[in-house]
């Protein structure tokens, strides 16, 4: 109950139900992520945010009880149910972003006017500027060569591989290293680009998070449009089926 209350905003019951199924599935499918440390899952966004009873509230409790025991399966197996805040108009596949075996595709996440469903997110569009010296220091490399060279992107426009000052990095590794050194949510997503002018490096992008699986702001918009939680899950996890866990 605390995870659902902490991960999904209130106000859209069907979006909360979708989050409940996704979070339950993620917890079951992700058991063992921290087994070498003596526990299964952590309480940070690395796994799922959990701050205890502080995040429990009546609306999210109802979503948990209304979907009690339900998980998402694909061809009988637990679906890898990643989720994030805002995708910027398209999600990406786990295979592309995390290099994990998965048949789950990315999906376009647009409304009838071809605008991102997550357009109400405060991070629908974002900008961040830093200096070459600061970025290089954060990455632990000399400030030599271009600060941000795209090597490979997926069809949704998310950067999967790049070079920063000549150092090859995956998109997720770059975002993580910049976050740890210069502040998380500076580079809010890899659905974006960077430009240089003199010593300044300007990043511009769309969305917040890794962009895989359930888009939380998109789910809220689908719920506003009248979709129930099962339809929301089918949208973000094509071929997946909500069913009771064994």
In short:
This protein has 246 residues and is α+β, with helices and mostly antiparallel strands. The protein is globular and about 55 Å long.
Radius of gyration: 18 Å
Counting helices, strands and paired strands, the structural category is: alpha+beta
How would you sum up the global shape? Answer: globular
Total E-strand runs: 11
> How are the strands ordered across the major sheet?
2-1-11
Into which percent range does the helicity of residues fall? 25-40%
Distance between the termini: 20 Å
The largest sheet, given as strand count, sense and whether it forms a barrel, is:
3 strands, antiparallel
Strand % is 15-25%
Q: Report low-confidence residues grouped into runs of 5 or more.
A: none
Task: Write up this protein.
The protein has 246 residues and is α+β, with helices and mostly antiparallel strands. The chain is 30% helix and 20% strand. It is built from 8 helices and 11 strands. It has helices spanning 2-7, 13-29, 58-66, 94-98, 132-139, 171-182, 216-224, 229-236, and strands spanning 70-74, 77-78, 83-84, 126-131, 149-153, 159-164, 167-170, 192-197, 200-205, 214-215, 241-244. It has a 3-stranded antiparallel β-sheet. Strands 4-9-8 form a 3-stranded antiparallel β-sheet. A hairpin with a 2-residue loop joins strand 6 and strand 7 (167-170). The mean pLDDT is 93.
């Amino acid at each position: 109950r605390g995870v659902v209350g902490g991960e999904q905003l209130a106000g859209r019951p069907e979006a909360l139900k979708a989050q409940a199924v996704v979070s339950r599935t993620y917890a079951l499918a992700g058991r063992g992520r921290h087994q070498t440390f003596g526990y299964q899952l952590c309480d940070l966004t690395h796994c799922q945010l959990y701050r205890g009873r502080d995040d429990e509230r009546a609306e999210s409790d109802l979503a948990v009880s209304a979907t009690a025991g339900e998980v998402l399966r694909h061809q009988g197996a637990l679906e890898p149910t990643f989720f994030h805040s805002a995708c910027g108009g398209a999600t990406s596949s786990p295979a592309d972003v995390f290099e994990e075996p998965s048949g789950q595709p990315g999906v376009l996440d647009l409304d009838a006017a071809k605008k991102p469903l997550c357009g109400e997110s405060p991070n629908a569009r974002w900008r961040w500027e830093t200096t070459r010296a600061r970025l290089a220091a954060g990455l632990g490399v000399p400030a030599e060569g271009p600060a941000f060279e795209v090597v490979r992107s997926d069809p949704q426009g998310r950067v999967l591989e790049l070079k920063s000052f000549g150092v090859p990095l995956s998109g997720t590794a770059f975002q993580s290293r910049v976050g740890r050194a210069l502040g998380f949510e500076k580079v809010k997503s890899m659905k974006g680009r960077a430009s240089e002018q003199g010593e300044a490096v300007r990043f511009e992008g769309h969305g917040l998070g890794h962009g895989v699986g359930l888009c939380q702001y998109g789910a809220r918009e689908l719920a506003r449009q009248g979709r129930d939680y099962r339809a929301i899950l089918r949208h973000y996890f094509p071929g997946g089926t909500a069913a009771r866990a064994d």
